[in-house]
Amino acid sequence: MLWHKLSDISQLNDIQNLSKEQSSQGLTVLLFKHSTRCSISSMALSRLESKWIDNENIPTYYLDLLNHRDISNEIASLYDVDHASPQVLLIKNGVCVYHNSHNGINAAEILEAAKA
Fold this sequence. Notes:
The chain is an alpha/beta fold and 116 residues long. The chain has 4 helices and 5 strands. The longest helix is centred in the first third of the chain and has 13 residues, at 11-23.
């Protein structure tokens, strides 16, 4: 997966704009919130990366939430989802259209939801 590191809160505006641009083509943006100290988070990330079918049409963003909890909190507020770690969100036209966490993170399910 080609991860874009999410490390500045201002990037959320860029993601919002990108998701709106992508939406006109029926596409989404993926956010992955990861705790580098959590074995479940590491397992979910590894499983996602190993099963992901590269799709250049789905920009993927990686958030190290231990270093950027402020961004994680803003994501929860902006997209009206409870904070979890690990957690994935699909953003389409500026709104979260899918989210899941922990063992519910499944590449095939995410890719299917991205098509909807």
